[in-house]
Design brief:
Endonuclease III, domain 1; 2 domains; eight-stranded mixed sheet; 42% helix
Length: 356
């Protein structure tokens, strides 16, 4: 099979079928970087909206580096995988400190930035500088596995190395930017995960997976992620015109995002069980008037490796206890200014009647 012929077919297909996206109209490494990070775990339609909003507020490395982390997180709110935003912010400051504010131009230097791995470095270097590095994402894994009928698991170390080397061998070094874009777009639009239109595929005469009737089975994955259930009991405590918020820290989901005081339990519990717990009693100790005004059982919130079963209790108090000093007191009308998870945002919208 002629590698150059495959490359030419893919690039020709791309030029006829590509989507018009803003990050494809620029060679600015900063904008390409932002787009690549946003598009990780995010659909293009949703990512486009966030890209435009994010780059309007932070148009260059210096603007992002100067920003407060809470503001960066607020602009990222709703995208999920919030470590991406923290790493973007840290890397922007790294560029200002280590590279005098100039985006690095070599693969090694780009890889030194916080949160950038092999794929993102290859994307930036090929799209911005036309350097000959193949990008290998989920779309590329799928195209290559089917095209060459490879049943090596894509989620193992051996598979990742093999497919990266294969993509590199196919790379058109004259046009690495176009080749990489073409390969990924082909996987996104033509060689889709389910029910691809193989009859009208420009590579159907060269596809070994199609010839072997293995298209629907490929690519192969070796293992499944273990999904853990978690039970979150949120206490929306407010009084005297103030609402309590807490900033999540530690190595857990939604780090550095804000939420209401939380009691996590090992199973679903009733209000009577929850209010009888020592941690609950300690939190409200010394408060004369505690009134639960609403209980809302939200639908389960599914993450990649967790399923959250949330319940929200709206509680009105006439004062705040000493145990509540660890929380941030925010004016009721300013709660929306803080970066929160999609779960919290959904609850606030329900509470405000936006979904009814």
């Amino acid at each position: 099979m002629e590698d150059r012929e495959i490359s030419d077919i893919l690039i020709r297909w791309y030029e006829e079928n590509k989507r018009d996206l803003p990050w494809r109209r620029t060679s600015d490494p900063y904008l390409i970087w932002i787009s690549e990070i946003i598009l990780q775990q995010t659909r293009v339609v949703q990512g486009l909206e966030y890209f435009n909003r994010f780059t309007e507020r932070f148009p260059d490395v210096a603007a992002l580096a100067r920003a407060d982390e809470d503001e960066v997180m607020k602009y990222w709110q709703g995208l999920g995988y919030y470590s991406r935003a923290r790493n973007l912010h840290a890397a922007a400051r790294q560029i200002m400190n280590d590279f005098s504010g100039v985006f690095p131009r070599t693969r090694e230097e780009v890889l030194s930035l916080k949160g950038i791995g092999d794929y993102t470095a290859a994307a930036i270097c090929s799209f911005a500088y036309r350097l000959p590095y193949a990008t290998v994402d989920g779309n590329v894994f799928r195209v290559l596995a089917r095209l060459f009928d490879i049943d090596l698991p894509i989620d193992g170390g051996e598979g990742k190395k093999y497919f990266t080397a294969l993509a590199q061998s196919l790379l058109d070094e004259r046009r690495p930017d176009l080749f990489n874009q073409a390969m990924m777009e082909f996987g996104a639009l033509q060689c889709v995960p389910k029910s691809p239109d193989c009859e009208h595929c420009p590579l159907n005469g060269k596809c070994l997976g199609l010839a072997a009737r293995q298209v629907e089975r490929l690519p192969v994955k070796s293992g499944k992620t273990v999904v853990k259930p978690r039970y979150f009991n949120y206490l929306y405590i407010h009084g005297q015109g103030m609402t309590l918020l807490f900033k999540r820290t530690g190595n857990d989901i939604w780090r550095n995002l804000y939420e209401f005081p939380l009691i996590e339990t090992e199973r679903a519990v009733t209000w009577e069980e929850l209010s009888g717990m020592a941690v609950f009693q300690e939190l409200f100790d010394g408060i004369e008037k505690v009134e639960i005004t609403r209980e809302y059982v939200a639908k389960k919130h599914v993450l990649s490796h967790r399923v959250i079963y949330p319940v929200f209790y709206e509680i009105r108090v006439d004062s705040f206890s000493e145990s509540m000093e660890k929380y941030l007191k925010v004016p009721d009308d300013r709660v929306g200014e803080y970066a929160v998870s999609r779960l919290i945002q959904s609850y606030l919208e329900v509470r405000d009647g936006l979904l009814f």
